[in-house]
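User: Here's a chain of 410 residues. Predict its fold as C-alpha cells.
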Amino acid sequence: MRFVRKDLGSSARALLYFTILIAFSCAGVPEHSSGSEKSPVAQTSIVDKIENQIEKLLGKEEDPEVVKVLLGGDVMFNWGIRDTIKAKGELAPVKGLKDLFAGADLKILNLETPVVSEKNWDTGKAYVFQAKEADLETMSFLGVDLVSLGNNHAMDHGPEGLEETLKFLSDRKISYIGAGKNLESAFKPWTWEGKDTNLRIYSATNVAEGRSHYASTSPGVMPLDADQWVKKFQMENQILNSVKNGPKFLKKGLNGKKSKALPSSQNQFRILSLHWGVEYSPFPTLDQRKIAKTIADSGVNIIIGHHPHIPQGIERIGNSLIFYSLGNLIFGSRNAYLNHNIIVILHIKKSKLIQVELVPIFGKFQNEDHLVRPLEGKEAENFLNEIAVLSQDLGTKIRIEGNRGWIDPD
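Assistant: Prediction complete.
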C-alpha cells in the first residue's frame, strides 16, 4: 500500500488545495447566483465531493474491505484519573482520544479494574482497584466493543465483584473475554465476522494474586499455560475444519435451509491478549519470548501484551507479531517510571494482516492532569524512535511517518 507523508508544510498543502479547488471550479462546480443563497446542505455536499476528490488525489482513500482493529493498554479509574474526573468531568480524561477511536471499526481495551457498586468499595488497601458503574460512560463515549479481563486486578473484589463487573458491562453492551463463572467461560473467545474477515479474540494472564483467582470450576480469570492454549487451539481447528468440510447436514440450520458458510481454521485471524511481564521493564523476559514462540507456532496471529505499565518492543515470529507491552492507556499512576504509551491499529483485509499502525499516546503524567491524547510532532517522533530501537533488537523494523509508526508485511 502507498501512504503519502502527512508532514507536508502548511504552505505547500494550502497551495495544493488551492490548485485543486481551481481545477474543480473550471470543471463546473456550480456557482450560486447573486439572487439566491445556496442552502447549507448543498454547500456541504459540494465540500464533501471536493474533499473526497482531494483524498483520492493524495492517495488517502479508504479501502472498504479493510477492518481496522484498535487495541489499547491498561485501563483503571483510580488515583490521577479519579482526580481529573472530579476536577474536570467524567469524560475529561479521554476526550482527546475520541477522533482516534472514531476511525476504527473495532475498539478493544484491557479493563484492569472491577466495576462494583460503591457500597462494596474497599478503601483499606493501596492496590485494590475499583470503578463505578458511571465510569463505564468513558467506554461508551469511545465506542469500546470489547474488554479483556484476563489480568491481576479483575478479581480484586472476589467472585461477587467479578459477577457485578460482568453485569455492568453487559448492561452497556460491552463484550468481555478472559474471565467468567468457570474455566470454560473464561476461555471462550469473542468472535466477529464482517468484510470477509473472521476474528477470534482471547484473553489470559500469568499474573494473579493467587491460584484461587484463576478460573476452574469456580469463577476467575483465564490462566496462561502455553501448552494448554496450544491444545485448545488444536481442538478448535479440528472443530472448525470438520464443520467446514463435513457432511451437508452439519451445514444446515435448524430449519433445514443451508446456513452461511463457516470459515475454516485457515480463514481465522486470532488475537490473544496477555497480561504478563515485569513491571516497568522495557524488555520482555526470555521466558516470555519462549511462550510467544510456542503460541505463535500454534497459529495465533497477534499477541497483545500489558502489565509492565510501560511499552516494550515488538517481535515478528514467522507470520505473527508479538506486542510484548503497550503500556498504560487510561491509568491513574503518577510515578517517576512512567513513559508514553502505544495504541495499535491492525489493518486487516479478508483475515490477512496488511499493515500495523502504531499511535504514540501521552503517558508522562507525573506533574499534570490525566488528559490522555495522541502525541504529535517531535515528541511523537522521539518516542516512536525509542520503540523502533527496542523492536529492532527483536528483529522488527518500524517505519516512522506522520506522527505514526508503521509495520509493513514481509
